[in-house]
Write a structure and sequence with these properties.
Alpha-Beta Plaits; alpha+beta; two-stranded antiparallel sheet; globular; 4-stranded mixed sheet
Length: 269
């Protein structure tokens, strides 16, 4: 049974305590960006894994300010995991957390380009990084830092099935909008929103797994060959040359398939 985070925008006050908690727990450096509104930073980066945005919408009842969280959605069937050629991204089957291993990242940017939620961010010298769903805290029985810190109960944490039931009940109660329940085949971050997702700037994501797109599956198969061959070359000195040639061949095939996958995922989205 995997876990999930519930973000209830109707209880969010935009205090950004969750952003600060994320920074402090993960020891992420502070950033300063210039902009015309009251938020810093403006977007997700390799050092900012959670951003709360204010969105003003003019409706039948006049102008209203809405809040929305941008973060990794931790897909049940993550396309980033399927497509990474060096297996620098893994999904933990127990918690549902999708975790990047920056030390393995080779900077191919496949995860950056194919993520339907536009989450992974690459930084030279650091690699690709994003929210880990605090898998380190989960491993010792603690909830994610953002959830623990939220002063209004806008963030909840628990088994996904229970979180889904809570989210559905809350959305029905307030006439809200659900996001993450079915998008990309389902995710481990479920949002109850106070306005339609597209009006809040959230990506319009297909309600099926992007990892099942044929072109992505083909890239995943090539990526697996590259990874297995690379591992073999590390442990079998006598096969080093053959393994090296196989890797080169795999990379050529990977490059071709990658172009097809990028085109396919963009068309799907």
């Amino acid at each position: 049974m995997v876990n999930a985070i519930l973000y209830d925008a109707s209880k969010c006050i935009g205090c950004r305590a969750c952003q600060v908690a994320c920074k402090r727990w993960n020891e992420l450096e502070a950033e300063y960006t210039e902009g015309s509104d009251y938020k810093n930073t403006q977007e997700l980066t390799a050092s900012t894994w959670n951003v709360i945005k204010y969105v003003g919408i003019e409706g039948d009842e006049g102008f209203k300010l809405h809040f929305v969280s941008f973060r990794c959605m931790h897909c049940l069937d993550p396309v980033c995991v399927a497509i990474c050629p060096v297996r620098a991204i893994e999904r933990d089957p127990e918690t549902g957390a999708v975790v990047t291993h920056s030390e393995r990242c080779v900077g191919c940017l496949m995860c950056v380009n194919v993520c339907p939620f536009h989450v992974p961010k690459f930084e030279r010298g650091v690699g690709t990084r994003k929210c880990t769903m605090c898998i380190d805290r989960q491993s010792v029985g603690y909830e994610p830092a953002c959830v623990h810190t939220c002063p209004t109960g806008a963030l909840m944490f628990g088994e996904r099935e229970e979180i889904v039931r809570t989210a559905q009940a809350r959305a029905n109660e307030i006439g809200g909008y659900l996001y993450g329940l079915e998008e990309a085949g389902g995710t481990c971050v479920i949002m109850v929103l106070t306005a339609p997702p597209e009006q809040l700037g959230l990506p319009n994501v297909e309600k099926r797994s992007y990892a099942e797109v044929e072109a992505v599956r083909e890239v995943s198969e090539v990526a697996s060959v590259i990874h297995e061959t690379s591992e073999m070359s590390k442990s079998s000195g006598g096969l080093l040359l053959a393994a090296g040639l196989a890797v080169v061949g795999g990379l050529v095939a990977f490059k071709t398939k990658r172009k097809q996958a990028l085109k396919a995922t963009k068309n799907e989205g």
